[in-house]
Write a structure and sequence with these properties.
- The model is unreliable at 156-161 and 324-332 (pLDDT under 50).
- This protein has 17 helices and no strands.
- Helix 2 packs across helix 10 (184-193), helix 6 packs across helix 16 (288-317) and helix 15 (275-285) runs antiparallel to helix 16.
- The chain has a single domain, classed as Na+/H+ antiporter like fold (Up-down Bundle), CATH 1.20.1530.20.
- It is mainly α and 332 residues long.
- The protein has helices at 10-24, 29-53, 56-62, 66-86, 88-91, 97-107, 114-122, 127-153, 158-182, 184-193, 195-219, 222-225, 228-255, 260-270, 275-285, 288-317, 326-331.
- Keywords: Membrane, Transmembrane, Transmembrane helix.
- This is Bile acid:sodium symporter.
- InterPro entries: Na+/solute_symporter_sf, Put_Na-Bile_cotransptr.
- The chain crosses the membrane at residues 37-54, 66-87, 99-119, 131-153, 204-223, 229-253, 281-301.
């Protein structure tokens, strides 16, 4: 029997299990140091594989659609942070200050790649543009996210800290990514053949980061600081952000005259945030004891955006077959 689209996917269940394991059996002492080193290696491998999977041909096909990419990047790195700051007086009382720091961190993250492209394809959107736009968001996030963290998430010495963070991210994330992409002519076919196996490595790396982060957070008293009421409030905060992001991207796409296929791409690339980039970056940008609280909003938003966008993608897909590119079709 097929799983309902409203139920969590296997990866989300694995994330929940990992958080539970870290809550019951947190790594400490020498074990924690071992996991920290292993996590650094796993993050490097994760971004190496991302680089090896990135298709240059797909980027070339989609790169000419600059208006679409500019709008997606504006929504990702400007609209979201503005929403997080403007709504802070209203939404922060629903959660703890530490959790809202995680919400602001969520707001400055790049867009997700895999699910944005998958939903765009399901909804019959502009897939080449989605590949290009989501990939560009991830690459820019290496530079933009640390700067925005310094500007709106942290205080005191933020500027120097953010530049230091960029250096660490370039070393730990960008360097493996570039090496993987440069080696793509030789290993690209092998990566494609073993995509399902490498997905386990990909997701296993994130689970390892989550376990390490939550272990440190639990030892620092995470679950004593975060009540059930705060968790429910956090879900409300994230639902408001997602609803506003989806409504804004849809309105902007239509207001600026994009056709339906491009609208689909803008909605799914401009309203999503990357768990795959967010968790490793948090490991670099924040103190170990704070990472668990910071990534909790990212993890919840990840599942929320998957469930909502799955329904939305199917609604887009049900539009008339004659409306492959609705605006063009109507004016032809």
């Amino acid at each position: 029997m097929a799983r309902s689209r409203y139920l969590p996917d296997n990866f989300t269940l694995a994330l929940v299990t990992t958080v539970g394991l870290a809550s019951l059996l947190p790594a400490s002492g020498n074990t924690a140091h071992f996991f920290e080193r292993l996590t650094t290696v796993a993050i490097g491998l994760l971004f190496f594989l991302h680089g090896a999977k990135l298709s240059r041909d797909a980027i070339v096909k989609g790169i000419g659609h600059w208006r679409l990419h500019l709008l997606v990047l504006t929504c990702t790195f400007l609209l979201f942070p503005v929403l997080g700051l403007v709504l802070r007086p209203v939404l922060q009382p629903l959660v703890t200050p530490a959790l809202y720091t995680g919400v602001l961190y969520l707001c400055v993250l790049p867009a997700t790649v895999q699910s944005a492209i998958a939903f765009t394809s399901l909804a019959r959107g502009n897939v080449p543009a989605a590949i290009c736009s989501a990939s560009a968001s991830t690459l820019l996030g290496v530079f933009v996210t640390p700067l925005l963290v310094g500007l709106i998430v942290t205080t005191g010495g933020a500027s120097s800290a953010s530049f230091d963070a960029i250096g660490r991210i370039l070393l730990q994330l960008m360097a493996p990514f570039v090496v993987g992409h440069l080696l793509r002519p030789w290993i690209g076919a092998w990566v494609k053949r073993h995509a399902s196996t490498l997905t386990l490595v990909d997701r296993g790396s994130i689970l390892l980061v989550v376990y390490t982060a939550f272990s440190a957070a639990v030892i620092e008293g995470l679950w004593k600081q975060v009540s059930l009421t705060a968790l429910i409030g956090l879900c409300v905060v994230l639902a408001v952000l997602l609803a506003l992001a989806l409504a804004s991207t849809t309105w902007l796409a239509r207001r600026l005259g994009f056709n339906k296929a491009d609208e689909v791409t803008i909605v799914f690339c401009g309203s999503k945030k990357s768990l795959a980039s967010g968790v490793p970056m948090a490991h670099v940008l924040f103190a170990a004891s704070a990472v668990g609280t910071v990534v909790l909003p990212v993890m919840l938003f990840h599942q929320m955006q998957l469930m909502v966008c799955a329904v939305l993608a199917q609604r887009y897909a049900r539009r008339s077959v004659d409306e492959n590119l609705p605006v063009v079709a109507k004016t032809a």
